[in-house]
Design a protein that fits this description.
Layout (H helix, E strand, L loop, with lengths): L1 H14 L7 E3 L11 E8 L12 E14 L5 H14 L8 E3 L3 E7 L6 E14 L1
Parallel strand pairs: 1-2
Antiparallel strand pairs: 2-3, 3-6, 4-6, 5-6
Length: 131
Amino acid sequence: MFKTLVDNFNLLAEASKTEEFPVYPHDYKGNISKPQFIKYMVVFNNTDRLAYSGNARVIPGRIVLSIFYPSGNGQTVPVNKTASLLQIFETKTVIEGLQTDLASLQFMGRDPDNKTLSRADLTIPFNYYGD
């Protein structure tokens, strides 16, 4: 079940390579040529909770979308990108069994690896109902 979920996010990343904000896995080490991009991470929590029906487990987690953008441009770029991402992810059933909740945006400041970039993290909590 986890592989299916992560594979769906990998497809999102592959489909976005030519977009204004290409998407990469959080551990991507290759060359990124665009001045603004997104790195994503899916984090699962351990749980033994059962769903209301009692037949499936509830697995909570978080989708973290780190938005990288040129420093010195204020917060407009990540706020505008977040608005479009929320239309896709916030309080939705993304795939069967995956329900997202209200998201939050945190401004992380300059990227320690590349001082020309700043970073904002969009965190989207979810519950996955599966076996």
